[in-house]
Write a structure and sequence with these properties.
Layout lengths: L7 H5 L3 H15 L10 E9 L5 E8 L13 E5 H7 L7 H10 L13 H6 L4 E5 L2 H7 L4 H9 L3 E4 L6 H14 L6 E4 L3 E6 L2 H21 L21 H15 L4 E5 L2 H7 L4 H4 L9 H4 L4 E2 L3 H15 L12 E4 L3 E6 L2 H22 L9 H8 L2 H8 L11 E5 L4 H12 L3 E6 L13 E5 L5 H15 L4 E4 L15 H26 L7 E5 L12 H21 L5 E7 L10 H10 L4 H5 L10 H11 L11 E4 L8
Parallel strand pairs: 5-6, 9-10, 12-13, 12-15, 13-14, 15-16, 16-17, 17-18
Antiparallel strand pairs: 1-2, 1-4, 2-3, 4-7, 6-7, 8-11, 10-11
Helix pairs in contact: 6-7, 6-15, 7-9, 10-19, 18-24, 19-20, 20-21
């Protein structure tokens, strides 16, 4: 159950009316059972003196696009209260007109656009106003007896408002109904199928009233036997029970094709999601989102099972039934419930998929609790369509701008813990890809702490470990689009007459055999890449210009070069591009230990410093130089290039 997170010492560090508003807004945002990902809004009314020395009342309301959990003072839009409240007296106001009027009434041009609920906050006669989409409250309201349950929980301490689409229409309805229904005992307002408001003279009073109101809803659920959902069985699973990675990749391919762009597919197989996805009545109860705001993240309905074509057909029917002059959004599902996958969510980024997953995890609880009260009933499709295609909601998503180059795509990099491999991970992440990094060094697992990176300790010469790593990567992100083969070893200089067969075999196993293994195992997934698979092989200058004392290394890289050329020939029909980079003298890598560097310099009768810049341009080549070109090779500028090999060496006289 929810608890007040108010802390006197912490609260004192947020001085002033706006400061305390920031603090309690953040407290609300910390609790995911109250608000999720940009949901909810808060406000405070403050008397201020303008440039003419006149005192006026300003409504500071959450700005569009800000999240309560991390909001700052700059995230609140200052709007002249009188102008905002007066808008509620108009008989009608379009969305563009409302936004224009609110922005015109702002006192700071650089502030964010006010929340669509700004007029509603303005007409409520309280200094502090809090609004959340608390799970417990929407559990009560998304029910055939929703209004009766709300009145049972709250009596006359809240005003109950029927569902009306957020924005001007809701503000105007509340302006009419709230004064007539409110009394001295009123501490809140419930919007059916939407959420709950609380009010107070101080930030703490409004916040703690919100907590108490939500607890009253939770206590009613508890009395009705609808609060505790119990434990979900931990079903022992064998490796045979794990989902087929290739089936996941096919599903992701179909979802991406429906969307018209690549998407990641994140699977969450835990006892809770599997139990829900395996319910026999799933088609009946998975009706729609718990609150209409979620529809832009999850769409109206989840895909149950894996028939993407049927889902698209149903989405088109839904659109045709309700559309007027709208342009249809992509019909791809964002939430998938499957008895083997549990809960899977799709997104242009891993963050988007994670947001959809978190929203639906809460929705599952709401659906099951509401079911114990008589049944879960979401808003009608007409209302959800209006929200999904609402210009103001779509504008929130559009603010993200043009997606990064590799948004929705998945890369795998070997030898990713250091040097060129680590630089490749960073280059691909910066271009929007989700990345799986493999390395024999266990530090790879903690290398980066972010949702779109999965570091796995893996010996790429062991087929079982590579197979398992690929499976984990597919489960994490849904597929494979980009493969950067970088792992390799460079032994100390040794002339052929002194070269043991065991050392030769070790170099071949890592530099050649492991890459054959990775290419063979990756091929089925690269074929399913929505925008076509791409492979970049990190070769070596030693292919066109070998050096003395490096027979094993040079031969392994030459064989790898030939392997890549054959792959380019064989895989072109599958839409997979294969290209090779030949770097030279990249010294910020794990391959180049001080010992190796000294031995190679000595082989050429050069000092170490001379050896570092021993090229035509007299420049030092870095891991980042190689990685950036590897990333670009995977991009659209090289869309018609395959089978190429490109030196990254500052110009080598022997190669030229």
């Amino acid at each position: 159950m929810v608890e007040s997170l108010w802390n006197d010492e912490e609260g004192a560090s947020y001085p002033g009316d706006l400061g305390s508003r920031v603090y309690t807004s953040r407290l609300l945002g910390r609790d995911k059972s109250l608000v999720l990902h940009g949901g909810g809004n808060t406000s405070v009314k403050i008397r201020e003196t303008n440039r003419f020395g006149e005192e006026e009342e300003i409504l500071y309301v959450k700005g569009s696009g800000w999240d309560l959990e991390t909001i700052e003072a700059a995230g609140f839009s200052p709007v002249r209260l009188g102008a905002a409240a007066r808008l509620a007296t108009l008989p009608r106001l379009s969305d563009p007109e409302m936004v224009n009027e609110l922005r015109t009434a702002m006192t700071l041009a650089s502030a964010p656009t006010p929340s669509v609920e700004a007029i509603l906050h303005a007409v409520l006669p309280f200094k502090y106003v809090d609004h959340t989409h608390a799970d417990a409250v929407v559990t009560l309201t998304n029910n055939p007896d929703g209004e009766a349950l709300v009145r049972e929980a709250y009596g006359d301490s809240v005003v109950v408002i029927p569902y009306v689409m957020p924005g001007f229409d809701l503000a105007r309805l509340c302006a009419e109904r709230f004064p007539a229904a409110a009394g001295p005992q009123t501490v809140g307002m419930v919007l059916l199928n939407h959420g709950i408001f609380s009010f107070g003279a101080t930030a703490r009073e409004s916040y703690e009233r919100m907590i108490e109101l939500v607890r009253r809803a939770e206590r009613l659920l508890e009395r009705r036997g609808a609060w505790s959902l119990g434990r979900y069985p931990q079903t022992p699973e064998t490796p045979a029970d794990a989902p087929d990675p290739l089936a996941i990749a096919r599903l992701r391919h179909e979802v991406s094709r429906a969307a018209g762009f690549p998407m990641v597919l994140v699977s969450d197989r835990n006892p809770r999601t599997l139990a829900f996805a395996r319910r026999e009545d799933l088609s009946r109860i998975a009706q729609g989102p718990a609150t209409p705001d979620h529809v832009i993240r999850t769409k109206r309905l989840p895909l149950i099972g894996r028939d993407v074509a049927a889902y698209i057909q149903e989405y088109r029917r839904y659109f045709d039934e309700h559309a007027k002059s709208h342009t249809m959004l992509d019909p791809a599902p964002r939430v998938i419930l499957d008895p083997e996958l549990g809960l899977a969510t799709a997104g242009r980024t891993v963050k988007d998929a994670a947001i959809a997953a978190e929203i639906y995890e809460h929705t599952m609880d709401i659906i099951e609790r509401a079911g114990r009260l008589g049944g879960y009933r979401a808003l009608p499709a007409r209302d959800l369509f209006d929200m999904e295609y609402w210009d103001l909601e779509q504008a929130k998503l559009a603010k993200a701008g043009k997606p990064p180059l590799f948004a929705g795509e998945v890369a795998l990099v070997t030898g990713a813990a250091s040097g060129i491999g680590r630089a490749a991970v960073e280059a691909l992440l910066s271009r929007g890809a989700a990345v799986v990094g493999l390395d024999i060094d266990s530090r790879i697992e903690a290398m980066l702490s972010r949702r779109d990176f999965l570091g796995l300790r893996c010996d790429v010469t062991v087929e079982g470990e590579v197979t398992a790593a690929l499976a984990r990567g597919i489960e994490a992100f849904g597929g494979l689009d980009l493969l950067v083969l970088n792992a390799g070893i460079f032994p100390a200089a040794r002339r052929i007459a002194e070269l043991p067969l065991a050392e030769w075999d070790r170099v071949m196993r890592v530099n050649l055999d492991a890459n054959l293994l990775l290419m063979r195992l990756s091929h089925p997934f690269l074929k399913l890449a929505p925008a076509g698979g791409r492979v970049v092989v990190i070769g070596s200058k030693n292919v066109p210009a070998p050096g003395p004392g490096a027979a094993a290394y040079s031969a392994s890289k030459a064989a790898l070069h030939q392997l890549a050329r054959v792959a380019a020939l064989e895989w072109g029909r599958d839409g997979i591009r294969v290209n090779v980079l030949h770097p030279n003298a990249v010294f910020d890598t794990g391959v180049w230990t001080d010992e190796v560097l000294a031995s190679r310099a000595a082989a050429y009768n050069l000092t170490v410093e001379e050896y570092r810049r021993n090229n035509v341009l007299r420049v030092e080549v870095t891991s980042r130089d190689v990685a950036e070109l590897a990333a670009e090779l995977c991009g659209p500028r090289f869309a018609k290039t395959t089978g190429a090999w490109i030196p990254v060496d500052g110009g080598n006289e022997r190669v030229i």
